[in-house]
Amino acid sequence: MKEKENTISKATLARMPLYLHFLQEENSKGAQYISSTVIAQNISVSSVLVRKDLALVSSEAGRPRLGFAISRLIVDIEKFLGYDNLSDAIIVGAGGLGRAFLGYEGFKNNGLQIVAAFDVSEKLIGSQVAGKRILPLSEMKTFVEENKIKIGIITVPKTAAQDVLNQMIDSGIKAVWNFAPAPLRAPKEVVLKTEDLAASLAMLAGKLYRTGDR
Questions:
Q1: How far apart are CA 110 and CA 214, in angstroms?
Q2: pLDDT at 213 over 80
Q3: Domain termination residue (choose one: 25, 55, 81)
Q4: Hey, is 33 helix, strand or coil?
Q5: Cα(49)–Cα(52) distance, rounded to whole angstroms?
Q6: Contact by Cβ (8 Å): 124, 134
Q7: What span, in angstroms and rounded, lies between the C-alpha atoms of 16 and 183?
Q8: For 33, phi and psi rounded to 5 degrees?
Q9: Is residue 206 in some structural domain?
Q10: Is 164 exposed, middle or buried (0-12, 13-18, 19+ CB in 10 A)?
Q11: Quick one: how far is CA 137 from the chain centroid?
Q12: Measuring CA to CA, how many Å separate 179 from each of 38, 88, 101, 126?
């Protein structure tokens, strides 16, 4: 898998979850085979690109007049993305967004299992969301080390985000998904992905404005 990751482009990698979601929907409807043309129409790319993308992650070549075996593609894409091996993660920040993440079961479909949250609020500590505990932030390092957690999600105010990131790194976290609206700094060996919700909203509003539909 690592060799394929080194040769696959970021654009192709970004399309893989789209392929997987569509194939899972078709599989749930009872479909067994599907053509690259049908996939392309639903992902809004060319059928040639679909075949090239799938060839990078699957040995399923398709059958004449039938197409690709959907179940085989699902297995191969899930394996490539690591979705076949759930990774445990923790959240720091049990406010509205953090609690929403705790209750969202869809992460499991993408190989992620949130096992606990941490906060500094005495009102939140000790409570549970979807069966997952909210623990004191002071206990994060011990929890991460004992449970060998490698993924952390940050949903705290921006003023606390860098400190939380530093604590995660000190605890042994190797990959961080940041939702705080702050430019964070991390060592090169730590994977850091920041989601700027405000920027995404501004882009959406800007596109709507330019269409004149306002």
A1: 36
A2: no
A3: 81
A4: strand
A5: 5
A6: yes
A7: 28
A8: -130, 155
A9: no
A10: buried
A11: 23
A12: 35, 18, 11, 23
Count the neighbouring beta carbons within 10 Å of the beta carbon of residue 99: 21
Distance CA(114)–CA(151), nearest Å, equals: 9
Measured between its terminal Cα atoms, the distance across the chain in Å is: 47
Tokens 């069966």 belong to residue: 131
Rounded Cα distance between 3 and 91, Å, is 31
| Burial call 107-125: b when 16+ CB within 10 Å, e when fewer | beebebebebbbbeeeebb
Range of the domain at 13: 2-81
pTM of the model: 0.67
Q: What is the pLDDT of residues 27-36, one digit of tens each?
A: 999 999 999 9
- With 70 as the cut, is the pLDDT of residue 146 above it? yes
Give the chain's mean pLDDT: 88
Question: What total of structural domains would you count in the chain?
Answer: 2
Report whether pLDDT(3) > 90: no
Residues 27 and 56 in one domain: yes
pLDDT bin (cut points 50, 70, 90) of residue 177 is: very high
Please give the residue that has the higher pLDDT: either 199 or 125.
125
Question: Cα(113)–Cα(106) distance, rounded to whole angstroms?
Answer: 9
Cβ within 8 Å of residue 180, ≥6 positions away: 93, 154, 155, 156, 157, 158, 160, 161, 164, 194
